[in-house]
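step=encode ok
step=design start
structure_in=
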């Protein structure tokens, strides 16, 4: 019996596929085809337009919602699917929509059990339908249950053999097994052969070219990968397909720079002839143009991207990319850099809080310590930062307050900002404070330490030394900040102002024991202190020689104290290398391992990279120590080219969402892992005297 067709006012959806007319059927097939061609962005674009113009079937809506989820709009997709299921609880396609909305959320939520259950329920509603079989098998694959997916496909071979999209699920599983086996030849041939079989049945199936092309690229055969990916781009302009093709071009050592430019530009021109283009892909193309040193092509493409929607999220990302490139220049024009930041911050709409936070922080870093910048502008900037700030940074309430206090400007406002930081902190669960044997409080939350340091420095500059001493000493007694250079310097200045010379010298001495660079705040502290005591530098060299022997115990103690209280093993990894192939954490068992997390977008990473690269080269043939990095740049080909230009050859593995599992406090971060696989040290941010500091930690690991 057919269900009567009726229009749902909130979705403009027809009740069931049985009511689907020819027009709705064509629309549903169009969305489905775009999804399976790795072009879900276009599927969403088409779906938005069709839903706005006329009611569509639940089959159409299910594929539309699944496409939404795959583009990353997980909450929107699930909300729409849940509303449809509520309206039509018996609809098989409504259940398909729920499963489709959930299946791409695994990396973010880890809810594999819920994903599998939703897909199984949908599959049970129409076991003979290839789309429902695909939904269940693909869900099993995505949650990491590849063997169960293969068993399901084997049980339904009579269906799978007639459906290339189902066969591609098997090809994707075989590809993953190939990567996990570190590209064993037999596994690689098996995975590639599976895709060849699909192409013989369906010559225009995009994934039959895309999956093996991507696999060959990851295995280190970019020339063979390009051949397949070029064909894939003829059938799809989806982001992943085209991005992989460009990466294959960039990865070929045998291609000249001019040939790489030519092939990428030809591909972009073909894209621009399409009726619909994923503008994220154009942003990636502009980044390729920048990396390939094609400024005129880059300028024209960026102008094209901005001409229709200069205020949307894509344009916002494009503007931020320009700022990042300026920030990365070794000798940048600071006025040009600040102008670009000002233009970004003056945008009428900001779509991503993260980008707004980053721009404000970059502007603050540019202004910090620059006495030509009016303090009122600093205050306004810090207030703007506080409006979008959040845990774990609270930069406005810590660094911003310290800057205002150091300027002795707007101290009341600075105090209020610091105190409001404590209010912000109270909204988040923190570990209970510990007490010493004498009942003194020890801070266990690093952000509280930053806030109290900032507040204490405000009190010092207000002329309230006892209040300043209370806050600063509380922070110093916390192991987290015992060796913070600026804190030690401030404690020394506090006690010097109170006439306690011996006490002041002890903090200046601890400051001097820290690793130093040219611009380090403790670099000249003992020399400056001596001058303030004696009014001249006569005899300072003898004084410095006398205190030199007192520094080594401080250094040794600092390294020992910095060892992590809770030493656990990092999650295992098997990641592809930027140079081809892959490497597994199991390769480094029994060795001391330095694991470094970085990105070319990260200014701090780039500052220390020459020193780090030279350090890593020392252990290239070591049987005892391994140095490995994990890079989270979105464009591996550009990272590889950049390394070649700089003659860097240290090990670089590609992130593939590994970093997102770790809860890092920032980038760059370096982990020092002992021979038993336990993480003993964590160094966050740049580190002065990198070679000396890294060696000291390795020496500690050797003595374990």
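sequence_out=
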């Amino acid at each position: 019996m057919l269900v009567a067709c009726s229009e749902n006012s909130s979705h403009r959806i027809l009740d069931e596929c049985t009511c689907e007319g020819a027009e709705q059927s064509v629309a549903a097939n169009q969305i489905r085809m775009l999804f399976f061609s790795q072009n879900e962005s276009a599927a969403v674009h088409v779906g938005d337009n069709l839903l706005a113009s006329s009611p569509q079937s639940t089959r159409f809506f299910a594929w539309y919602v699944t496409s939404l989820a795959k583009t990353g709009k997980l909450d929107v997709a699930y909300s729409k699917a849940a509303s449809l299921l509520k309206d039509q609880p018996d609809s098989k396609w409504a259940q398909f929509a729920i499963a489709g909305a959930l299946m791409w959320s695994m990396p973010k939520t880890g809810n594999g059990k819920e994903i599998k259950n939703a897909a199984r329920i949908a599959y049970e509603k129409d076991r003979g339908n290839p789309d429902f079989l695909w939904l269940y098998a693909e869900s099993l694959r995505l949650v990491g249950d590849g063997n169960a997916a293969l068993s399901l496909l084997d049980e339904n071979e009579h269906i799978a053999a007639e459906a290339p999209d189902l066969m591609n699920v098997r090809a994707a599983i075989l590809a993953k097994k190939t990567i996990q086996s570190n590209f064993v030849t037999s596994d690689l041939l098996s995975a590639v052969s599976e895709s060849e079989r699909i192409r013989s049945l369906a010559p225009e199936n995009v994934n039959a070219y895309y999956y093996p092309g991507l696999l060959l690229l990851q295995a280190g055969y970019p020339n063979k990968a390009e051949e397949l990916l070029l064909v894939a781009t003829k059938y799809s302009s989806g982001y992943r397909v085209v991005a992989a093709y460009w990466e294959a071009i960039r990865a070929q050592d045998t291609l000249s720079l001019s040939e790489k430019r030519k092939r990428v530009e030809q591909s972009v021109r073909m894209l621009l002839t399409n009726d619909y283009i994923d503008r994220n892909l154009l942003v990636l193309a502009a980044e390729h143009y920048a990396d390939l040193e094609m400024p005129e092509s880059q300028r024209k493409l960026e102008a094209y991207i901005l001409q229709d929607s200069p205020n949307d999220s894509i344009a916002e990302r494009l503007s931020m990319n320009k700022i990042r490139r300026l920030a990365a220049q070794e000798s940048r024009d600071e006025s040009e850099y600040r102008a670009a930041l000002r233009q970004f911050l003056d945008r009428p709409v900001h779509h991503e809080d993260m980008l707004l936070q980053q721009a404000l922080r970059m502007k603050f870093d540019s202004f910090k310590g620059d006495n030509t910048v009016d303090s009122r502008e600093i205050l306004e900037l810090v207030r703007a930062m506080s409006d979008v700030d959040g845990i774990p940074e609270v930069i406005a309430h810590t660094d911003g307050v310290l800057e205002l206090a150091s300027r002795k400007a707007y101290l009341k406002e600075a105090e209020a900002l610091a105190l409001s930081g404590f209010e912000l902190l109270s909204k988040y669960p923190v570990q209970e404070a510990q007490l010493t044997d004498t009942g003194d409080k020890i801070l266990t939350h690093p952000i509280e330490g930053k806030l109290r340091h900032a507040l204490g420095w405000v009190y010092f500059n207000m002329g309230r030394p006892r209040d300043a001493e209370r806050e600063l000493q509380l922070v110093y007694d916390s192991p987290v900040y015992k060796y913070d250079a600026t804190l030690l310097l401030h404690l020394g200045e506090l006690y010097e102002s109170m006439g306690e010379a011996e006490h002041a010298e002890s903090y200046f001495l601890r400051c001097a024991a820290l690793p130093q660079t040219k611009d380090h705040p403790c670099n000249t502290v003992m020399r400056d202190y001596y001058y303030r005591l004696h009014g001249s530098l006569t005899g300072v060299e003898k004084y410095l020689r006398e205190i030199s022997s007192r520094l080594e115990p401080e250094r040794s103690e600092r390294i020992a104290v910095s060892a992590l209280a809770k030493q656990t093993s990092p999650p295992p990894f098997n990641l592809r290398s930027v140079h081809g192939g892959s490497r597994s954490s199991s390769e480094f068992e029994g060795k001391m391992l330095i694991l470094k997390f970085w990105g070319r977008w990260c200014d701090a990473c780039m500052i220390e990279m020459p020193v780090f690269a030279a350090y890593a080269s020392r252990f290239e043939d070591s049987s005892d120590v391994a140095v490995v990095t994990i890079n989270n740049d979105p464009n591996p080909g550009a990272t590889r080219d950049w390394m070649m230009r700089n003659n860097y050859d240290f090990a670089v593995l590609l992130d593939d969402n590994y970093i997102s599992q770790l809860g890092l406090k920032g980038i760059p971060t370096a982990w020092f892992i002992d021979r038993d696989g336990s993480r003993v040290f964590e160094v966050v941010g740049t580190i002065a005297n990198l070679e000396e500091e890294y060696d000291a930690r390795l020496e500690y690991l050797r003595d374990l």
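step=design ok
step=annotate ok -> The chain has a mean pLDDT of 86.
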